[in-house]
Amino acid sequence: MITVRARAEGRVAEHRIAVGDPLPPGTVWIDLLRPDEAERAHVGALTGCDLPTREEMKEIEASSQLYAEAEAIYLTASVLARADSAQPEQSELTCVLTPRHLITLRYSEPRAVSAFAIRAQRQPEMLASAEDALLALLDAITDRIADVLELIGGRIDALSAQIFNDSLDPAGFGNAAKKPDELQDVLRGIGRAGDLTHKVRNSLAGLDRLVAFLGTVTSGRLSKDQKAMLKTLTRDVRSLNEHAGFLSHEANFLLDATLGLINIEQNAIIKIFSVVSVALMPPTLIASAYGMNFQFMPELEWRFGYPMALLAMVLSAVLPLWYFRKRGWL
After folding, report:
1. Which of 44, 131, 152, 182 is 20 to 30 A from 37 (CA-CA)?
2. Crossing angle, helix 179-217 and helix 130-163, to 10 degrees?
3. Any idea which of 81-95, 148-162, 231-245 has the lowest mean pLDDT?
4. CA-to-CA distance for 53 and 56, rounded, in angstroms?
5. 63 vs 149, residue with greater confidence
6. CB count, 10 Å around CB of 165?
7. What is the reported pLDDT for 296?
8. CA within 13 Å, CB half, 103
């Protein structure tokens, strides 16, 4: 699908064009969403650019993601999509900057691109030139990443409160049946937060390289205001990268804390079984001794032999428990 946004008479008009149609007058931004080969070739012929294929967009070499050919600058970065869903994904976004047009190729629908399109309708000056459109798009992507980091921070705070809540205190055996489920939910939440943080850091790393390359190849092409905006973008991307690193550290800390709680729970259960086993060993020994069928056992003929054996078994079980509690092992 080819969507064209043209600026005319101080307004931004949106058009859908098909293969073979010319570009409307005043076209600034050409957006290709899941284009087929015919659409990609048609836009390439209209703009004089050799647009990359999807396989070429996925290449990880810096020379394949950031390069310049003739008067066109090719910029590819990984952008988050569906970040607030249960299955966030990353998809490549390629921006081609020409003297007259900004061309974007994408195979997903990141919220940042949709937000930029809506803002451009309200603020036509964002599409005053191809350079302005590119910088505004990068700013929208950065704003979206900041929103995602806030979302991750809120999730981590909620997980932290759930982990260190008194209901998870290992000394409170009353909730033992519920705690494994709670800890499993916490582990899943930490895993999702860590995965999303990893995707954000990956996107920020690519965006940082993109902005640095853009500043190098357009040093004599941007206006003073555009250079200031590019410098602000660089500073924002790096500060967000630092914050993403902090959130990643917090997720690892919560993971260690949760695994520690699971180990404490397991140790407490094993401790109970160990104490019960030790307490039952002497009664078992006494019962085994009097269960032997020897001919000469004086207690078998004694009137109080059976009560004495029961009392000996009870005392042999109580005395170890008393000793363990006195030593603080219980």
Report:
1. 131
2. 160
3. 81-95
4. 5
5. 149
6. 10
7. 66
8. 28
Compute the average pLDDT of residues 127-137.
92
Q: What is the pLDDT of residues 256-302, one digit of tens each?
A: 988 888 888 778 778 777 877 877 787 887 777 777 665 667 776 77
Indicate the average pLDDT of the chain. 85
- Listed by start position, the domains of the chain span 2-267, 270-326
Tokens 């999509």 correspond to 81
The 3-state DSSP composition of the chain as helix, strand, coil percent (nearest 5) reads: 65, 15, 20
How would you list the strands of the sheet with 66-69, edge to edge? 11-17, 2-8, 27-33, 102-106, 89-97, 72-81, 66-69
Q: Return d(Cα 120, Cα 57) in angstroms, integer.
A: 26
Radius of gyration of the chain (CA): 34
CATH number of 2-267: 3.30.460.20
Which tops the pLDDT comparison, 82 or 321? 82
Residues 196 and 207: their CA atoms lie apart, in Å, by 16
Taking a C-beta distance cutoff of 8 angstroms, is the pair 258, 180 a contact? Answer: no
Length of the chain: 330
Torsion of CA 159, 163, 167, 171, to 10 degrees: 180
Asked if residues 34 and 1 have their Cβ atoms less than 8 Å apart, the reply is: yes
Question: Would you list the DSSP string of 3-55?
Answer: EEEEEETTEEEEEEE-TTPPPPTTEEEEEEES--HHHHHHHHHHHT--PPPHH
Query: For residue 313, how far is the Cα from the chain centroid?
Result: 58
Using CA atoms, how far apart are residues 76 and 323, in angstroms rounded to an integer? 70
Helices (H) and strands (E) in the chain, counts: 8, 7
pTM of the model: 0.79
Residue with tokens 């937060």: 193
